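Hi,

Apologies if this is the wrong queue. I'm a grad student, and the batch job for Peptide ABC transporter permease SapC from Photobacterium lipolyticum produced an output file that my downstream script rejects. I'm not sure whether the problem is my script or the file. Here is the sequence I used:
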Amino acid sequence: MLSSNVYQEQKIPTQWERSWLNFRANSLAMFGLWCLLFLILVTITAQWLVPYLPHQQVGELLMPPSWDPSGHVEFFFGTDDLGRDMLTRLLLGSQLTFGYALLIAFASAVIGFAIGVLAGMTRGLKSSILNHALDTVLSIPSLLLAIIVVAYMGPGENNILLAIWLALIPRFIRAIYTAVHNEVEKDYIIAARLDGANNFYLLYNSILPNILTVVTTELTRAISIAILDIAALGFLGLGAQAPSSEWGAMLGDSIELIYLAPWTVTLPGLAITFSVLVVNLVGDGLRQALNAGID
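Support response: The file is valid. Your script probably expects a header line. Output copied below for reference.
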């Protein structure tokens, strides 16, 4: 006689599902994710959200923000020393600082991942030469390397993007190369090779899932570095030139007004800080979630 009880097999969550559940349980990481999505949405739609043109003189000079008794609700974040709307410039500046940082970081990740995997899966003289070359390049801070490139090519938005992109690629190559090389030396990879597995199968099914933490960490770190480097070069006058609304350039143009009109300095500074903070929150949450998912 068959039992009337029906036993249903409980579905075992995959690594990705466990990682997502762990990420959702992290309240700070979820807060950072929602803020990051909001920042990306604002960056994409900034040109349709702005109330004025970025270089248009629409109000009185140095009008305080709307919450100040002397401010006006029409200019929510006030105006700068030329009467330009601060909210408009901050929104459009997100495309030049945060948006370009995302593009540079992902472009660097693609190139660095390809070279790092290729070097990590092979052995011999080529890997040794690449290893020593990376040691030499990484001994120079990324901002200093970017300044050297900009000094040679000249200031400008396109040149700083290229300079920061070239400075970030070696970081990805070293991180991916080291992670892949360490995985290749492990026993389960050697056993899979003896069983007839090719390099593509090993990379996709065995190595890549185990180095996702490294990829995530380097990507979020690269985004933060790119944001800070773009802003720093703009602040120094080597990047975006006036009257650009890039956040670092806005800081550099308004630094002399810090006592007379502090909002012209604090608002771009807060925008830079906020963007770096939410990227780091998401990056830390992803790293913890992926490590817990693997365990």
